[in-house]
Predict the 3D structure of the following.
Amino acid sequence: MDLGDGVPGPKVNNTEMIMKIFLTFIKIGLFTFGGGYAMIPIIENICVEKNKWITHDEMMDVTVIAESTPGPIAINCATYVGYKQKGIWGAVAATLGVVLPSFIIIFLISIFLDDFLEITWVANAFKGIRIAVGILILDAGIRMFVKMKKKVIPCIILACSFVLMMLINIFAWNFSSIFLILIAAVFSLVIFLIQGAPSGKGGKK
């Protein structure tokens, strides 16, 4: 059986595959801090590069879709990967796997929350974790940009969105990133309609 080293092994049955999906996403959920975009490089490394469960293009597409739909992005990605491999039960296994570690850890912390926050080494550890999370999120952004098709319109949208987000943060404007996503989506859709939607399967005219 393929244990995540990217080397094909003997065919596994449904139960073994579902259990592998569950254990894989438990590992992702247990050792990834920061959630959301911080999880994307880990998910991509394990699900795309090692296990070959989805392609790089699918990872980019599901990241965009997961960010645009309700729910945490990492959970949505996990659900998609699980569903593609083993349908509903695969989706359930992946979702439970990525959620369970965080649920258990936060539940235990909540019991001893006051005492937990007063521990000096814990407070210092979280300072380092915040820096690492920022780097993971930056890594996810760079990976997506490198693999993105370098067309004029997407690059313009990317540049404008980046500049606008920087201005929002610098001047502390009360502007939700959700509206920025919607504006970018509408702008891209308008350009798509103006240029003429491609007809036929595979986008061929």
